[in-house]
Amino acid sequence: MAEITRGQFGFKDLGMLMSLQTGDEKHGTAATSTLDVLWVLYDRVLRVSPDAMDDDGRDRFYLSKGHGPMAYYAVLAAKGFVALEQLRGFGTSGSILGHHPDRNLVPGTEISSGSLGHGLPLAVGTALGLRARGIVSRVWVLVGDGELDEGSNHEAIAFAGRTGLENLHAAVIDNDSARYGWPGGIESRFAAEGWSAQRVDGRNHTALEAAFTAPHPARPRVVVAAVEEPHNWPQMLLAQG
Amino acid sequence: MQNMRERFAAVTTELLEEHQKLAVVLAAISADQFAVAARRHPERVIDVGIREQLLVSVAGGLALAGMRPIAHTFASFLIERPFEQVKLDLNHQGVGAILVSAGASYDISAGGRTHQSPGDIALLDTLPGWTVHVPGHPDEAERLLRGAASDDGLVYLRLSTQANATAFPAGPSGFTVLRRGGTGTVIAVGPLADAVLTATERLDVTVLYAVTVRPFDATTLRETLDAPNVILAEPYLAGTSAQLAAAALADIPHRVLGLGVGVGELRRYGTPAEHQVAHGLDPASLREAITAFLR
């Protein structure tokens, strides 16, 4: 197999890169709630590259919602972090790609996730650490609306908002999967704690990019990406929540 | 004299000047003792408020950003309450941190069960890679803290208001031989050393002093073993180190007695000294148990 170089694949190829992992014949990109957000971040926003993962000044992306990571692996493969041949082994014993990502195994992966409610609190610590070291880079964390049921997130949201942690960014995938919902909208919970908050269409790449790059002086930033409930996920991954 | 916790705050305040990557994370507890450090280093002395899950996660996040974090609160809120954060945000991420607890098993005897953590070390034993220090004197706590600050691994430093009258000289590493005898070996952990030395006066036993209990110093135990009868005197859950002692002596028939804090709830208040007696860790109770075991 030819060596994969960065930028060889586009958004339209992500379905194919996901199919390599699951063995399904065809993977519609609309089936996966995180795919558009992941792509816009990696293609247009994050300052990261496979050659510069030890650069202290790189942006950090923390996938907190570690469930259903095929979209994440597909984007990492498309951007040259993960070799194409690795995708085929998804979930097998010798593979680096598990059903939840492990930063110690997957190139380009900044945190190990799977248990919900850990990414945002970790990202708060990293944002504080980078600030203390005088490193100007941004920390991004992707969480799910269902994941926000975990109380650990609320410790992080309150603290980051009240302390004005400007280098911290959260993208919340809102596919209406929180057990009891978030009356008033998820963004209102962040805003009440002092975050800069915006809800956008989670499938609209232009809108996502604009929301991700809007200035938010002296406040952390949350972008709530609204997406339709996915209907055709493989059962195996749905079972994990 | 400063107690261990006061010494911890004073020494950490000093270390923050020397180590530019050192950061302290607090959850309200001991914040007043770090007030000067927080004024000098507002970006490296972080009080997250009464949020103990965040306390440990922030330590993990700081380590991911290349910092050397110290996280501190009472043992019950540092190890037990956010245990999954310890497991995942430190161990599983593959980063290092220094967790410094106060309160130990029954320092806060009048506070009741909520503020007592005899099971902290047993819990950490379910995770790989932890160095665990149980100092018996503020001077020992200072030495161990300074060592941990310049290291990059996972270190648990368990501070207590219970202490021995004087510090014991630091050995090269591992257990220190306090006394030699022929009928068995007593391993006295941290603050229990004075009680064990009193308890074993004129008994024909070896007494080893342990402040660093993980890794467990099997080498010194074996090298000084004259009779295969081992008594553990631990100021936390009784028998916590029993399996490590057994593993150290797996190739020889041996007996192990685990003395320590009982697993049952006392449901009593009062003083630490009263709790020490209730758990059979005062000199008279220790002597009785050791003598009976070696009879």
What does this entry look like structurally?
- The complex is a heterodimer of chains A (241) and B (295).
- Chain A is an alpha/beta fold and 241 residues long.
- A five-stranded parallel sheet of chain A has the order 1-2-3-5-4, sandwiched between helices.
- Chain A is globular, with a radius of gyration of 17 Å.
- The C terminus of chain A is likely disordered.
- Chain B has two domains: 155 residues, 3-Layer(aba) Sandwich (Rossmann fold), CATH 3.40.50.970; 119 residues, Rossmann fold.
- Chain B is globular, with a radius of gyration of 19 Å.
- Chain B has twelve helices and twelve strands.
- By secondary structure, chain B is of the alpha/beta class.
- Chains A and B meet through helix 5 and helix 6 of A and helix 3 and helix 5 of B.
The main sheet of chain A orders its strands as 1-2-3-5-4
Provide the domain count of chain A. 1
The average pLDDT value of chain A, as a whole number, equals 91
The number of domains of chain B is 2
Shape of chain B: globular
Q: Which CATH class of the largest domain in chain B?
A: Alpha Beta
Low-pLDDT residue spans of chain A: 231-241
